[in-house]
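batch_manifest entry 22 of 60
target: Universal stress protein
source organism: Halopelagius longus
requested by: lab member K.T.
priority: normal
notes from requester: please return tokens only, no post-processing; we will run our own comparison against the previous entry in this batch. if the run fails, retry once and flag.
--- input ---
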Amino acid sequence: MYHVVVGVDDETERALRCAEEVVGLPGGPEEKSVTLIHAFVDNPNGASATQVQSVREAADYLEENGIEYQIEESSGDPADAIVTTADREDANLILVGGRKRSPAGKALFGSVTQSVILGAERPVMVTGVE
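--- output ---
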């Protein structure tokens, strides 16, 4: 079984692009499993990851394509949550959605994708940028 950890933020398009990439990986649906991880940076209402639209839509897409998945949630730094989940699950691949940022934006706000790439000890795949 090929296990993929997918970092899902609040952006539905990025989440669906990641789910599409999982479906497009070599092998049939029965050969893949996915952990969708959503990290809450701020969650004053106490929502769960299953209530986040981007997570639900990615999960629905995987289910429609016959791929087994589970949903995890965390709080705090998203990059740490993604890497920690991948390590705990001994994932074969981490998949995250990229996005365009100006050099100043990267310096000021950091980049979850960049942090995952630098912090992971396993392959990281980045989907196309917006």
